[in-house]
Design a protein that fits this description.
Elements: H1 3-14, H2 16-42, H3 46-52, H4 57-65, H5 72-81
Length: 91
């Protein structure tokens, strides 16, 4: 465990609010990372995805970098634009 992991673990123990906010933020960050990774693996640029979705490159950047409160329809359309299908799992 590196210093950052130790710090996060310590802060989570001290502050339930920090823990809730950290976990929520991490999930949102992870969604954006997964979208970007899928786009790159499919060989698309942000500009190409934007054209498919009839939007601006900046909108694609926002989706990938700030995925909080993203609509399900947006996720489905994004996946379709890069030739993928969206699968959700509840656990």
């Amino acid at each position: 465990m590196d210093d950052l992991d130790k710090y996060i673990k310590k802060r989570k123990k001290k502050s339930p609010e920090f823990s809730r906010n950290f976990d929520k933020g991490y999930k949102q960050f992870k969604i954006g990372v997964l979208l970007k990774q899928a786009r790159l693996e499919a060989g698309y640029t942000q500009e190409e995805v934007a054209r498919q979705l009839q939007t601006q490159k900046s909108a694609i950047s926002r989706i990938e970098n700030h995925a909080e409160d993203i609509r399900l329809s947006t996720l489905i359309n994004y996946a379709s634009a890069i030739g993928k299908h969206l699968h959700l799992e509840l656990s």
